[in-house]
Amino acid sequence: MADVLQRIYRFEREIEMAGSTNIDSPYGVGVIEPSLPHRHDPNYLLVERLPPGAGADEVAQEAERILGGANLKHRAAFTFDEALGGELEPQFRDLGWSIRRHIWMAQLRESERAPDLSVVEQVEERDLRPGRSEEILAQPWGSESVAAQLFEAKTLLGERAMTKFFGVKVDGEVVSWADLYVAQGVGQVEDVATKQAHRGRGYATAVVLRAAAEAREAGADLVFLVADGDDWPKELYRRLGFDTVGRLTKFFLTG
């Protein structure tokens, strides 16, 4: 299991959450991607350790130094270390920062479900933009500029990994979708969503399992995804053979 987690760490740092600039820090490393200033995942302080006596106050100051120094409006500190996340969470809450708890889930078992995968098509990234734009703009933080940068991030990912996109169409409209990124013998299933009116029909199950199967066809011997630790989809993923192998905690202030 430790090897599985280390491979996921490496994939996240070098592929999915990579930036164009790394900045040394006594807490770990600052990651910056100036071309995507609205996106948190390539613009953050990765906290790998705490010097003696340091806590959330000092980490927040370091995030200010690194992200503020890059003229970014948001502040974000992430940690891949579950114990560090637990230690820092109440401190960041007291500082008024927002907290997101994510879990890494690897497909280590056979799926308990066997949906009809023939309903899933491989599509182009642009085919998913109408549905994704709708989902993004429905969020409190959503805007046209944020949507544009999230889409641009897909292009950058395509430079680091093999990327494929899958969707289920109803009357010509893509109503459920997922991305697949493959590199380093690892496949990540990402950005899974289904339009509200089409939920409960097994489409998310089908796109996830199709993407996972395609990852293995492409040579990945490890397939994982990231789930919200406080939301229900993680229960679906468990039924699809994915087990929790680690946790990612994000502390942030939006600009």
Distance between the termini: 37 Å
Low-confidence stretches: none
Helix content: 25-40%
Please, how many domains? Answer: 2
CATH class of the largest domain, named Alpha Beta
Structural class category: alpha+beta
Largest sheet: 11 strands, mixed
Strand order within the widest beta sheet? 1-2-3-4-11-5-10-9-8-7-6
Shape: globular
CATH homology-level superfamily of the largest domain: Gcn5-related N-acetyltransferase (GNAT)
Q: Within the CATH hierarchy, at the fold level, what is the topology of the largest domain?
A: Aminopeptidase
Residue fraction in strands: 25-35%
What is the β-strand count? 11
Order of helices and strands: HEEEHEHEEHHEEEHEHE
| CATH architecture label name of the largest domain | 3-Layer(aba) Sandwich
Mean pLDDT: 95
Total number of helical segments? Answer: 7
Radius of gyration: 18 Å
Q: Care to describe what's here?
A:
The protein has 255 residues and is α+β, with helices and mostly antiparallel strands. The chain has 7 helices and 11 strands. Helix 4 packs antiparallel against helix 5 (144-160). The longest helix is centred in the middle third of the chain and has 17 residues, at 144-160. The N and C termini lie far apart (37 Å). The model has no long low-confidence stretch (mean pLDDT 95).
